[in-house]
Q: What sequence folds into this?
């Protein structure tokens, strides 16, 4: 990350507050439907599968696999050089749009289905952003 001040700061809403509070304390929060068991992301107050409002927040494992990605070669003020825009398939099921960090941004290094784990980068005092790195990579 070249210049974090160039990254737009997400503004928590009542629906996403639990997610950002979790991220700040280094935990990836997902929601699960108490009625049908669906696990989903992004946060919302009802189940996207059965519309039930009986939903709970829980700590995800933070583990997943690299589902797909593109490497963006266009200059971006918040990144040094090319960077990946990736979709990670979380262990619990949902997919999350993210960047893969702490690894070379090349097709040789970014292998589909490779195991990845969440890592949080503080952006402001209140907001930390979830990224993913190869599982076991040093931070
Ligand atoms: Zn449901």
A:
């Amino acid at each position: 990350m070249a210049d974090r001040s160039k990254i737009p700061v997400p503004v928590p809403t009542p629906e996403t507050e639990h997610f950002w509070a979790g991220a700040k304390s280094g935990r990836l929060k997902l929601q699960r439907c108490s009625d049908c068991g669906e696990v989903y992301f992004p946060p919302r107050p009802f189940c996207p599968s059965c519309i039930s409002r009986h939903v709970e927040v829980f700590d995800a494992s933070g583990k997943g696999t690299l589902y797909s990605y593109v490497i963006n070669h266009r200059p971006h003020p918040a990144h040094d050089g090319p960077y990946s825009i990736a979709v990670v398939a979380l262990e619990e099921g949902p997919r999350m749009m993210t960047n893969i960090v702490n690894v070379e941004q090349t097709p040789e290094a970014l292998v589909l289905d490779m195991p990845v784990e969440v890592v949080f980068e503080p952006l402001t005092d209140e907001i930390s952003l979830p990224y993913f790195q190869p599982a076991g990579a040093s931070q």
Notes: DSSP finds one helix and eight strands in the chain. The pocket of zinc ion is lined by residues 33, 35-36, 38, 47, 49-50, 52 (CB under 6 Å). Helices lie at 17-24.
